[in-house]
């Protein structure tokens, strides 16, 4: 606080040209993936599209909730769309 502002270099980094705020500002949580390929989020059920008739091998998904209240679901590291 005692150093004059003019003598301290700017420590902020520039964002890439195509950067979106949505790519950096989100809450990340996990959710249980049920045998029918659905998760429950905020009192609603969402289904991950699957070509398999079998239950999922991994029963956890990663959920990213963005500032605009939209969210993405990641299963096995891949982003999936969801059906309400």
Itemize the secondary structure elements and their pairings:
Blueprint: E1 26-32, E2 38-41, E3 44-47, E4 60-66, E5 71-75, E6 78-80
Antiparallel strand pairs: 1-4, 2-3, 4-5, 5-6
Notes on the protein architecture:
The protein is mostly beta strands. The chain has no helices and six strands. The strands form two sheets. Strands 1-4-5-6 form a four-stranded antiparallel sheet, with no helix packed on it. Strands 2-3 form a two-stranded antiparallel ribbon. The relative contact order is 0.21. The mean pLDDT is 83.
Descriptive tags:
single chain; 84 residues; mainly beta; four-stranded antiparallel β-sheet; two-stranded antiparallel ribbon; elongated
Low-confidence stretches: none
Mind telling me the C-alpha Rg? 19 Å
Mean pLDDT: 83
Compute the separation of the termini in Å.
52 Å
Report the total helices. 0
Approximate strand percentage: 35-45%
Q: What is the string of SSEs from the N terminus onward?
A: EEEEEE
In short:
0% of the residues lie in helices and 36% in strands. It is an all-beta fold and 84 residues long.
């Amino acid at each position: 606080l005692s150093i004059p502002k003019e003598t301290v270099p700017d420590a902020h980094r520039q964002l890439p040209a195509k950067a979106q705020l949505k790519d950096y500002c989100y809450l990340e949580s996990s959710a249980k993936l049920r045998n029918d390929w659905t998760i429950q989020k905020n009192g609603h059920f969402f289904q991950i599209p699957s070509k398999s008739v079998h239950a999922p091998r991994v029963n956890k998904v990663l959920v990213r909730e963005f500032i605009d209240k939209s969210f993405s679901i990641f299963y096995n590291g891949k982003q999936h769309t969801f059906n309400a």
